Amino acid sequence: MQIHWGVATDTGGRRQANEDAVLAEPPVFAVADGMGGHARGDMASRHAVAELAGLARTEGPVRPEDVVAALRRAGERIRAEMAGTDAVAGTTVAGAVLTEQDGEPFWLVFNVGDSRVYRCTQEDIEQVSVDHSLVQEMVDLGTISADEARHHPQRNVITRAVGTGPVPDIDFWMLRVGGPDQLVLCSDGLFGELADAEIHDVVAAAGHPQEAAATLLDRAVQGGGANDNVSVVVVSARGEDLETTERREECAEQGSTLPRADAGVNR
After folding, report:
1. CA–CA distance from 17 to each of 84, 115, 142 (Å)?
2. Any bridge partners for residue 10, and if so which?
3. Are 127 and 139 in contact (CB under 8 A)?
4. Which of 61, 132, 196, 225 could tie 160 with a disulfide, CB 3.0–4.6 Å?
5. Which of 131, 124, 264, 261 is nearest to 187 (CA)?
6. What whole-number distance in Å separates Cα of residue 34 and Cα of residue 89?
């Protein structure tokens, strides 16, 4: 199974510090969006990705209970650092782990808060995760539309986070791996600036996940102005098909290589 990915993160156009943290350590990928102020948000998101990174060294397939345990430890570390203060720190998390079920490869997708996971094909984009936010609850109740939620004044109010209290409920999905599908993991700084259709168009047109991640970041920061930190991970997993084999042979003849799967951008 070949895994290819790209990573990009930026403070955005108006923030002084980046409270987001990203993880790309196969088979584990995640985006965390910290909250609670510059230092506290940065601390919270870093603890989340640090605990999730430990899953990359787990023997055997990663299970939902492993993710729950990792995020429980992250929450304990966050609360320990905030002990003795009146302040609160926490983080959203959205991630995907390449695992297996009944011997077949699957993506184990999870989220807490309003960071998102999308699945992109050449034809369409689907939001896999469901936001844990006040405006999503309003959309579910039918009091506002999805389009209205994008610009609602309370769109940044989240209803679940890691570190702000007891271990929150974590949502999970199992997605079968195969074909040209790509996953996009991102903080709200990306989808707050770019419509889903634009995210799809960039990913579908890119020649490599790193190109897609870098282009998405540039469009959010330079085009939209990005009021928030922006982070995105684009990842795909597939068997090495004939076309890839032929490209490797051609590159070898020319003395070059395929694009590095682990190339990243940290701006």
Report:
1. 24, 18, 36
2. 230
3. no
4. 132
5. 131
6. 8
Comparing C-alpha atoms, which of 189, 169, 25, 20 is closest to residue 96? 25
Would you call 183 exposed, middle or buried from its count of C-beta atoms within 10 A (0-12, 13-18, 19+)? buried
Q: Which residue has the tokens 């807490």?
A: 112
- What are phi and psi for residue 103, nearest 5 degrees? 80, 0
Q: What is the DSSP letter of 21?
A: E
Site of tokens 């409270």 = 19
3-state secondary structure 98-139: EEEECCEEEEEEEEECCCEEEEECCCCEEECCCCCEHHHHHH
Look up residue 44 and give its amino acid: A
Paired tokens of 209: 């996940």
Query: Rounded CA gap, 259 and 242, in Å?
Result: 17
Instruction: Identify whether the C-beta of residue 162 lies closer than 8 Å to the C-beta of residue 112.
Output: yes
Provide the β-strand partners of residue 238.
2
Taking CA atoms, 83 is separated from 58, 102, 167, 176, in Å, by 30, 43, 17, 42
pLDDT in tens, the chain (267 residues): 899 999 999 988 676 789 999 999 999 999 999 998 777 999 999 999 999 999 999 889 999 999 999 999 999 999 999 998 988 899 999 999 999 999 999 999 999 999 999 999 999 999 999 999 888 889 888 998 888 887 787 777 889 999 998 778 999 999 999 888 999 999 999 998 999 999 999 999 999 999 999 999 999 998 655 578 999 999 999 876 534 434 443 433 333 233 333 334 333
The whole-model pTM stands at: 0.86
| Residue 234 three-state SS | strand
Q: Is 69 helix (H, G, I), strand (E, B) or coil?
A: helix
